[in-house]
């Protein structure tokens, strides 16, 4: 079964990393859970769900491990290499883990309510209620000053509208690395949304690195090629949105990034 389950699941692995990182607020912590998922598949191939498609089976295996971890506030996760987890644990009481999972699975990962119900052992009606609970928490979330780094005017306007509709303030829209750094210095942001490729062939990743050298701020990257930044082999983004994106995806990512309220580490 190993030679069947793993190859069929492998194309979905980058997106499981994206989900795990968003769920935990940390590349290190999220990737640890993904690694444990793969080890479980290899060690017990007969336990891999056969009755569903490989992506559902992969996420189902992940959730079995996540649910059994029983992370308590104040616990130190295994193999932690950053400080995000302590902040996450301190804030778990503000929104239940299941509601966060349901929101991310539907909005970020695009699963249907029925699929999410299978993944978290709930009913579709329960999933709908959990998502509503998470969205209500978003409405109560502290508003932030947001810097947008995006060189495509239509996309930048779309993101700006979403950000403002969520009640956040847009401090500026930068189209190059230098402009992004200058705007961050002029008005330090509480959140950065950054495209990867910018107008002058400069890099949004480099712009974020420059900003993080001076400010501690959560970052969400936006790219049409998420697989390239989800290899698990180097420091990579914790929060990542795929182009073209849905409004709900941006909303969920912003909420989750602000939930952990700490700087993410960009790809190098």
From TrEMBL:
It comes from the Bacteria. Keywords: Phosphoprotein. One of its GO terms (biological process) is phosphorelay signal transduction system. CDD domains: REC_PhyR. The modification 4-aspartylphosphate is found at residue 195. Residues 145-258 form the Response regulatory domain. The keyword Phosphoprotein applies. Pfam families: PhyR_sigma-like, PhyR_sigma2, Response_reg. This is Response regulator. It comes from Sphingomonas rhizophila. The lineage of its organism: Bacteria, Pseudomonadati, Pseudomonadota, Alphaproteobacteria, Sphingomonadales.
């Amino acid at each position: 079964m190993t030679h069947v389950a793993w190859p069929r699941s492998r194309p979905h692995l980058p997106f499981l990393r994206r989900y795990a990182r968003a769920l935990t607020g940390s590349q290190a912590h999220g990737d640890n859970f993904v690694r444990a998922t793969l080890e479980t598949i290899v060690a017990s191939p007969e336990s891999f769900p056969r009755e569903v498609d490989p992506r559902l089976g992969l996420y189902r295996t992940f959730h079995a491990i996540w649910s059994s971890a029983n992370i308590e506030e104040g616990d130190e996760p295994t193999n932690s290499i950053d400080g995000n987890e302590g902040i996450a644990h301190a804030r778990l009481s503000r929104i239940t883990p299941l509601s966060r999972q349901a929101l991310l699975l539907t909005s970020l990962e695009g699963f249907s309510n029925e699929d999410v119900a299978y993944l978290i052992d709930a009913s579709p009606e329960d999933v709908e209620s959990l998502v509503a609970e998470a969205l209500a928490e978003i409405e109560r979330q502290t508003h932030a000053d947001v810097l947008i780094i995006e060189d495509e005017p239509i996309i930048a306007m779309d993101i700006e509208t979403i950000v403002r509709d969520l009640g956040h303030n847009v401090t500026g829209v930068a189209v190059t690395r230098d402009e992004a750094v200058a705007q961050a210095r002029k008005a330090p942001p509480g959140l950065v949304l950054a495209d990867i490729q910018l107008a002058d062939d400069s890099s949004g990743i480099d712009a974020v690195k420059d900003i993080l050298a001076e400010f501690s701020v959560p970052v969400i990257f936006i790219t049409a090629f998420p697989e390239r930044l989800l290899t698990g082999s180097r420091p990579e983004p914790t929060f990542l949105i795929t182009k073209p994106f849905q409004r709900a995806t941006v909303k969920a990512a912003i909420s989750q990034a602000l939930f952990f309220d700490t700087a993410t580490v960009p790809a190098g």
